[in-house]
Specification:
By secondary structure, the chain is mostly beta strands. Helix content is 0%, strand content 60%.
Length: 140
């Protein structure tokens, strides 16, 4: 018997990737992708959501290219999501673990308004990202 499952995604990028300042993290492997409300082609930098309430969590290791502040933030349709960012003041070559969690509401779309959300994870400074895991769960 097949049960109706809530939409959920866990996508990861375990291999190290160099990301420029304001560049986006690519997630190469979908460990879990269920339901129809979340779309993510493996290898893409973008996760697409349709109507609902979502819990989004990110965990990653980050190694800055230069000393100073570096972090990752959630971008929704080209705009930073307030509060969905983690930043460290780092030394060149040292690795730091950062994470954040947030709730997002995606309003219904209609024939003249597209409210779907395109999410991306953006680096605030140049660095190397590894062991990144992004999870998105539709709550309602």
């Amino acid at each position: 018997m097949i049960c109706n499952q809530k939409s959920a995604l866990t996508t990861v990028a375990t291999a190290a990737q160099t990301v420029a300042a304001n560049g986006f993290v690519g997630f190469s492997t979908n460990n879990l992708l269920t339901g129809v409300s979340i779309k993510h082609p493996a290898g893409s930098t973008s996760v697409n959501l349709i109507q609902g309430l979502y819990l989004v969590t990110l965990n990653a290791d980050i190694t800055p290219t230069a000393a100073g502040d570096i972090g990752l933030r959630l971008i929704r349709n080209g705009m930073a999501v307030p509060g969905a960012e983690a930043t460290v003041t780092g030394a060149t070559g040292d690795t730091y673990n950062i994470s954040f969690a947030t709730l997002l509401r995606v309003l219904p779309s209609c024939c003249v308004i597209d409210n779907n959300a395109a999410l991306q994870v953006q680096a605030t400074a140049a660095g190397t990202i590894s062991n990144a895991s992004l999870s998105v769960v539709k709550m309602a």
